[in-house]
Each structure stands twice: as C-alpha cells, then as structure tokens.
Amino acid sequence: MTTAESRVIMISGANRGIGLATARRLASDGHRLSLGARSPDKIPADTIPGGPHIAPWTAEDKTTSTAWVEEALSRYGRIDGLVMNAGVVLGGDLETGDEEDFDRMWEVNFKGPLRLVRAALPALRKSSHGRVVTVVSLAGKRVLSKEILGYSASKFAALSLSHAIRRAGWNDGVRATAVCPGLVDTDMVADVTAPEGQFKIAPETIADTVAYALGLPNEASVAEILVNSRFEATL
After folding, report:
1. Using one digit for the tens of pLDDT, what is the confidence trace for 136-175?
2. Could you tell me the pTM of the whole model?
3. What is 148-186 written as a DSSP string?
4. CA-CA distance, 72 to 137, in Å (whole number)?
5. Which sequence positions are flagged as catalytic?
6. Closest Cα partner for 126 from 179, 81, 70, 183?
7. Strands of the 8-12 sheet, one edge to the other
C-alpha cells in the first residue's frame, strides 16, 4: 500500500458533520483530499490541513459525479479512495409517507452514490488498493420504526451497493466497507433527543472508523462495521 502522503481520497458531503470530521481526520493523517458538496462554498477549507481540492457535487444531478472525478484526476493524477458520506433523512412513514420524500431519499442515498462510484471506479481499479467507504446507517440493517421506512429502505439499498462494489472491484484490489452508525450528533438529527439508554455518537468517532477502514491492507477486507450507541441484542 502506498504511504498516506501519496493517497488521494474523495469525500462527499464534506461541508459538515461526519463528512467534515472525516476530512479533518484524513488530512491530519497526510492524505490529499478532494471534497464535494452541494454548497462547496460552505466547506470550511481553512480548518482542513493541506489545502484540499473542493468541487460542487449534487447527488441528484447526473452530471456532477463525472465532472468531480475528472477535476480530482486533473489535480492529483490518481484516486485511491472514495468516502460516500452525503445523505438525507426525511422519514417516510409506512402508511402516510409522501412519495416525493421517498423519491428524494432514493436519489440522494442510493442513486447519487451509485453515479459517483461508477465515475470513480476506473481510477480506483488503477490504484491497485482502491478503497470505497459508504456511510450507511444502522437503519440500513433493521427497521425499528415505521416512521422511517423510506429512510431505512434507501439505506438498505446503500448497503447492497457497498457489497456490489466489493464484489465488482475485488480482483483489481478495490475493497469496499459499509460503516453503519447509530445516532450521530450532527445537524441532521439536532432536533432528535436520544432515548433513554442511548447516546449520540461524536462525528469524530465515525471519522476514526472510516480512517480505519481506508487503512486496511488488501488481505484484510471488512465488509461492514456497525457502530451502535445502545445495546441491541440482535446486533
């Protein structure tokens, strides 16, 4: 595996929360970064060491994935890792959920990552140690509430995508890991109070987990990492 200083990592949704924490962690490790976000001007680049490349990327836009990958390759000449972190949660109740909300979660949480990895996969294959980490959710492992069916369904799809990437890229040294956290202390769930016996996980903890997955050698592939904030006997 190449040294940290020579590795180029793309991160989606890097303007806040898990994405920003991951960017800061990976930059401190010496990685060169290409950061994508719907509002790239909101990425606090001055707080991320190394002067990262910043590009506009919108999950629902079919053109921005290819454009971002091309920009990253133009700047660095290679891509060694991809962290697919951007996501949206709009609930999606079983009986009354708005189908437009279901559609948007499907676009952002599944089809956006699908387009992005399709664009980046040729470069990841050339790396011979390409890494793809998808930030999924424990909601993609089980449905605890009918009120978030739409979100859970989109995250189940994101989990299946991670496994498909792992299979597709295996012979070329591409390894894919799905990181599935419980409740994380981000703006997305700022209005959610953790139930009794549950905690909110710090974004930096998930950033550490992503860094671990990216750093594994080819012969030590981990398909899923579950990071819970409460005791669940079945997980």
Report:
1. 999 999 998 889 999 999 999 999 999 999 999 999 999 9
2. 0.94
3. GHHHHHHHHHHHHHHHHHHHHHGGGT-EEEEEEESSB-S
4. 27
5. 151
6. 81
7. 53-56, 32-37, 8-12, 81-84, 131-135, 175-181, 224-227
